[in-house]
Amino acid sequence: MIDILKNAWKFKVQPLNTVKIYESAIINNVKILQNTQKKSVLFPVLKSNAYGHGLKEVSKIFKNIDVPYIAVDSFPEYEIVKKYSWKKVLILWETFTQNYQYYDFKKATFCISSLETLQELVGFKEKIKIHLFLNTGMNREWFSEYELMAALNIISESRLELEWVLSHFSSADENDFSTSEEQIKLFKKMYRKIENEWFRPKYRHIWASAGTLKVRDDFFNAFRPWISIFWINPLDEKDDYFWCAEKLEPAMEVFSTITKIQKVDENQWISYNHTYVSKEKEEIAVIPFGYYEWFSRKFSNILPIDMGWFMWKIRGRVCMNLTIISLENKKEIWTQVCLLSREANAENNLYSWAKVAETIPYEVMVKIHPSIHREIVKKES
Q1: How deeply is 11 buried, as exposed, middle or buried, from its count of CB atoms within 10 A (0-12, 13-18, 19+)?
Q2: Domain range for residue 100?
Q3: Across the 381 residues of the chain, what is the mean pLDDT of every consecutive 10-residue run?
């Protein structure tokens, strides 16, 4: 289904739903993040379809931004970056051994967190760049202190090149930074063991977007922001470093189109399960955007839709591919409506979607369906 829709765009089919990606916002956000870590190299993490923004589109934007790597999740995402950008690609997660043969080892570098994968890569007998993932307390992907020496022994007897050493904060977004400080201490301890074995990795980093804003330590010479590239300030307003990300700009807007307008009489049920009944005669419209596209069913009868000067309400249940909205001022069929706004205080911005859906903005972003047409906005009118 997704491939069919992608092929449709080749023939300039005008989409009913569009995700707009604002290039200027991403460039602005990268500059802000670089200013927080002026002595470090930035490696943008564009995994999970660039957090829903569209990996193809965001890769194109980063072609003109000075970063040495683009980090992604898997082989399919690597293929997209390779097609639309000349940047080198860092693969964050491991895969089946037989899959590594399909990578271009001059283009791809791999995060490694298991002895088994290290041993398998040795078998390729090629120069392969790797980044060791150290466990400093996240206990998700790792080399523990006790496995580290075994890993270094394998690398020392192979053609593998240890280019990076990295880890990941578990709770840098919390006001209490003590856990992150313990992680930093352990990271440095493990790194000294690596140096004692005569390894000199080029990059050292232990980050998440929140850590990027809070850590000021010249020991680390690289950082890899994630969600903050696209607007989200991962810190609480009470956090001392919250101000560092206040000027981040939203990079995404979502639009749909009115495809039908009709009038209903008083006391008429609208959509599934009798959740809404008209209190008087009213006009309603249908838009082709439902929970398949990721309009949460929790939005039913609650989330407002921006029509410019007016906020319309959803009427009844959100359906799989359709949603019904009220028409409180006259509009015509094929009118465009803004579902997800870039305005910081809008009733239908990213934080509002997350609040109504009872989730976090991260999940809202990544669940916006990849089949929806993405469009780069280079200049704002």
Answers
A1: exposed
A2: 23-230
A3: 59 89 95 90 93 96 92 95 94 91 95 92 92 88 87 94 90 83 92 93 84 84 88 80 84 96 94 93 95 95 78 92 88 91 87 92 93 89 51
Same-domain check for residues 79 and 225: yes
Measured CA distances, 20 to 17, 292, 377 (Å): 10, 19, 6
Q: Find, among 128, 139, 134, the residue nearest to 149 by Cα.
A: 134
Domain count, the chain: 2
Residue 205 tokens, joined? 């980093």
The DSSP symbol for 267 reads T
Q: Are 337 and 303 in contact (CB under 8 A)?
A: no
Q: Is residue 239 part of a domain?
A: no
Is there a single domain that holds both residue 86 and residue 206? Answer: yes
Q: Is the pTM of this model over 0.70?
A: yes
In a domain, 4, yes or no: no
Dist. CA 174–CA 138, nearest whole Å: 14
Q: Say if residues 275 and 307 touch (Cβ distance below 8 Å).
A: no
Cβ proximity of 304 and 347 under 8 Å: yes
Burial 157-177 (b: 16+ CB within 10 A, else e): ebebebbbbbbbbbbbbeeeb
Q: Do 65 and 181 sit in the same domain of this protein?
A: yes
- Locate 76 and state its tokens: 């399919």
Residues 372 and 266 in one domain: yes
